[in-house]
Amino acid sequence: MGGVDETVLTEDGVRLWAIRSGEGVPVVFCHGGPGLWDFLGDLAELLADRAAVHRWDQRGCGRSQRCGPYSVARSVADLEAVRRHFGLDRMALLGHSYGSHLALQYALDHPERVSSLVYLSGTGIDSRDTWRSTYQQNLRANLGTHLERWEALDGRERTEAEGREWCVLQCSADYADRERALELSEAAATPWFGVNLDCNATVNTDVKRTLGRPELRAACEKLDLPVLIVHGAEDIRPDWALDSLEQALPRVSRTLLDGAGHLPWVERPEAFRSVVGDFLAGHAAGA
């Protein structure tokens, strides 16, 4: 796929990796984690003839400079630096997993810069306590014969190789196709850039402080932007957790993709391309 690696310089001097590819509606992706890197290249390729996709690694992650500080507000400012770097007046946002929370927060802070929002495989705006136990049960069930090894790695410090093994095992639970889950998880972890555990812990703590607060719901109720919620029917994060967000947003549609887990574009590519591509085209800046 086309595109040339670029360096975005934030106002506090941190260098972020970024890349642009495709043609069409300008959209910026926000990858999940926190602490991971952008592994959404296949998603960008799926939309290559419908969207000009701008991808980036969040600070401290992947190919970006590994330094803090880490917070949601800091990531929102970094996303603004990405927008300015590419000269985008308005843009669509697509956030996956934790990235959906980041994209939503950016839209709340800068609604004039956002034409539409795809909230992909997120978990809504209620407290994590409402769905976390269900997620943990589903995770363990999907790990199946790999559960014992995952638990052994999860409970101690890990070497770099063990860290990759732990991540591959955990992420294998995110696929509906249990026969190919480990293979698909290995592919997503290749190339391997490592997990920034400091970023993960710090940003997750920051997110937990805001979820479930009435101020967040009130802000969502005022968000006058088209939002598409997309979720895999077999995601181990329960679909009902999204009710809180859907009920708060004034302009929202919601799609549940059967036969898909946490990465629905991998397991249902054509259905995903149709739903998301049509949404982005229908709500392009100025359309």
Automatic annotation (TrEMBL):
GO terms for molecular function: hydrolase activity. Gene3D superfamilies: alpha/beta hydrolase (3.40.50.1820). Coiled coil: none annotated. SUPFAM superfamilies: alpha/beta-Hydrolases. Residues 26-268 form the AB hydrolase-1 domain. Pfam families: Abhydrolase_1. Keywords: Hydrolase. InterPro entries: AB_hydrolase_1, AB_hydrolase_fold, AB_hydrolase_sf, Peptidase_S33. The keyword Aminoacyl-tRNA synthetase does not apply. Belongs to the peptidase S33 family. This is Alpha/beta fold hydrolase. It comes from Streptacidiphilus cavernicola.
